[in-house]
Design brief:
Blueprint lengths: L1 E7 L4 E7 L5 E5 L6 H9 L3 E6 L11 H8 L2 E5 L9 E3 L4 E3 L3 E7 L8 E11 L7 E9 L20 H16 L7 E4 L17 E2 H7 L8 H9 L8 H8 L7 H6 L3 E2 L1 H9 L3 E4 L3 H6 L1 E2 L3 E2 L6 H8 L6 E4 L5 H9 L6 E5 L13 E2 L2 E3 L1 H9 L3 E4 L3 H4 L8 E2 L2 H4 L12 E4 L4 H12 L5 E4 L2 H7 L10
Parallel strand pairs: 3-4, 4-5, 5-6, 10-11, 13-18, 14-16, 14-17, 17-18, 20-24, 21-22, 21-23, 23-24
Antiparallel strand pairs: 1-2, 2-3, 7-8, 8-9, 9-10, 11-12, 15-19
Length: 470
């Protein structure tokens, strides 16, 4: 049996290749949109991908089911409650996807979404000698129903007409009647790890077991159904606006990632300026320090590291053209990572990057990055300090008299910021503050600076911090 996890840190996304090396049949579960890795491993292991299965219609990324269908002819499988524009095999509770001696038994586990399923993996070459010849479950591919240390949030379908409380009740039933009925030794392989916004307390490990989760997962401790619903619907992190868009796009026939990237072209500076004048978004994916030193006026900086796609999807809109400004050679990567969340409207990239502005200094701008000492002087002189960290981070200590405005909420709360007062933006280390400062300047705020090194530098310099909450 083959059971291999593929983990994509930038989206905290786990996907799986499951197969039988004897028959060569395999399935990919919850694939990312760029599917080359699955094809390479399958070829190395002598497997052919016959099925591609989504445990649910994901909101935080575009799955690669259409890509695998078109590349290798894999049959798309969804939970029976799903609705989609493309043909798929509906999977009902108790159905089995047979890959030879490896079988995937379907459990319908609604709650995170109405159509969520769990796939229980059985290896028929590993029979239970004490169980009448039955195969013990090897693992459960739980999607977003059960995470390591957490459970899936039930509020991401509110914009599509579902109530968080009703889905929370279904989640309680799915966990207790289906997943906790599995043997304790059954391995738990979820679709996300720490950092994903599909849960609020996901652990750093990417595999667990039913027994471990039964003992340690806060949401699986004994409690009434109503208490569980209250618990899992409270204090969830802000969901980026693209989540609903992605959930819908995953139900639709659409161009594949290969098709969208094939149209990526170099643009002259004049063409970029014309697109910008007509409403295109300029996304600069260079390092924040380089962006601060010089950038095209009106551009937004999201550095091509870490959670690039998530933050780009938070501050940009999917239905307006995007023009890329990148380090030379990183144009395709910048576009591909946007494609992972369905932001396919990339009109092209600035040919020669920022070098094309060498003779046009009037088109460039810079962002002042202040040392902690200078930042403290500015703050005492009337500059408003804007803290764009999440509220949970701020509770551990903040700059006195600073305004809390999490980056995830910035675009919709711009009217809360004064335009006639200097603004000093900071985050934990400088990545998010660069995004925030660039958004503010693109929206017409004229006096915006950053705290170099963020809160870490402020504390290291011995500057005052509000008392931390116990």
């Amino acid at each position: 049996m083959v059971l291999e996890q593929f983990y994509l840190p930038c989206l905290a996304h786990a996907s799986y290749l499951v197969g039988d090396e004897t028959t060569g049949a395999a399935a990919v579960v919850d694939p990312q949109r760029d599917v080359a890795g699955y094809l390479e491993v399958a070829a190395t292991r002598g497997l052919r991908i016959t099925h591609v299965i989504l445990t649910h219609l994901h909101a935080d990324f575009i799955a690669g089911h259409l890509e695998l269908r078109d590349r290798v002819g894999a049959t798309i499988c969804l939970g029976a409650a799903a609705k989609a524009d493309y043909p798929f095999l509906p999977l009902h509770d108790g159905d089995v996807v047979s890959l030879g001696r490896v079988q995937l038994r379907v459990l319908e586990t609604p709650g995170h979404t109405p159509e969520s399923i769990t796939l229980v993996v059985h290896d028929l070459d590993n029979l239970d000698s004490l169980g009448g010849g039955n195969s013990k479950p090897v693992a459960a591919l739980t999607g977003d129903t059960l995470f390591v240390g957490d459970v899936g949030r039930p509020d991401l379908r509110v914009a599509l007409g579902w109530s968080a409380s009703s889905l929370g009740g279904l989640l309680y039933d799915s966990l207790h009647a289906k997943l906790l009925a599995l043997p304790d030794q059954t391995l738990v392989y979820p679709a996300h790890g720490a950092g994903s916004l599909c849960g609020k307390a996901i652990g750093r490990e990417t595999v667990s077991s039913i027994g471990t989760e039964r003992r340690t997962n806060y949401a699986l401790q004994p409690m009434e159904r109503s208490d569980f619903v209250n618990l899992v619907t409270a204090d969830q992190p802000d969901a980026p606006p693209y989540f609903t868009y992605d959930a819908v796009l995953n139900t639709r026939e659409r161009p594949t990632l290969d098709q969208t990237l094939a149209g990526l072209t170099a643009l002259t500076l004049e063409r970029v300026l014309a697109l910008q004048a007509s409403g295109a978004q300029i996304l600069d994916s260079r390092d924040p320090a380089e962006f601060a030193a010089a950038h095209l006026r009106g551009s937004v900086n999201v550095g091509l590291v870490g959670q690039y796609a998530t933050w780009a999807g938070t501050v940009l809109v999917h239905d307006r053209p995007i023009v890329l400004v990148t380090d030379p050679g990183r144009e395709a990567e910048s576009a591909m990572r946007l494609g992972r969340i369905g932001f396919d409207a990339v009109a092209g990239y600035l040919n020669d990057g920022l070098a094309s502005l060498a003779d046009r200094p009037e088109l460039t701008a810079a962002t002042e990055r202040l040392s902690p000492l200078l930042a403290a002087e500015r703050a005492s002189g009337g500059t408003l300090v804007v803290d764009v960290r999440a509220q949970a981070e701020r509770s551990s200590g903040a700059i006195p008299r600073s305004l809390s405005l999490p980056l995830s909420q910035l675009s919709r709360r711009l009217n809360e910021l004064p335009r006639d007062r200097p603004l000093l933006v900071h985050c934990a280390g400088g990545y998010r503050s660069s995004i925030a400062a660039s958004v503010l300047k693109a929206e017409g705020f004229t006096d915006v600076s950053e705290l170099a090194g963020g809160m870490a530098a402020w504390e290291q310099a011995g500057q005052p911090v509000t008392a931390r909450e116990a």
